[in-house]
Design goal:
The protein has 82 residues and is mainly alpha-helical. The protein has helices at 2-11, 33-65, 74-77.
């Protein structure tokens, strides 16, 4: 971001920063929708991967904090001892 800002400043020093009063350029209007989809596809995969890793770490932490105990068979507790 800093490099982009620096290039903008260096390119507009001579014309008194006319880009500040110019109408904004919407690059989405110049690109086909499929290209925009392809540009954002890595971000989607990264978000899905991060969500998966966060959930797996959360579940692993819960398993460490609350380990599973062996289920007690209720029939063993209620047997008659003659």
């Amino acid at each position: 971001m800093f490099l982009i800002a620096l290039v903008i400043v260096l390119n507009n020093i001579g014309d008194n920063f006319a880009f500040l009063t110019a109408k904004p350029i919407v690059y989405a209007n110049m690109l086909p929708v499929e290209l925009i989809d392809l540009l954002f596809l890595p971000a989607v995969f990264f978000a899905i991967f991060n969500a998966y890793k966060a959930m797996s770490n959360f579940i692993k932490g819960l398993k460490e904090q609350y380990p599973l105990k062996k289920m007690v068979n209720h029939f063993d507790c209620h047997q008659r001892h003659d």
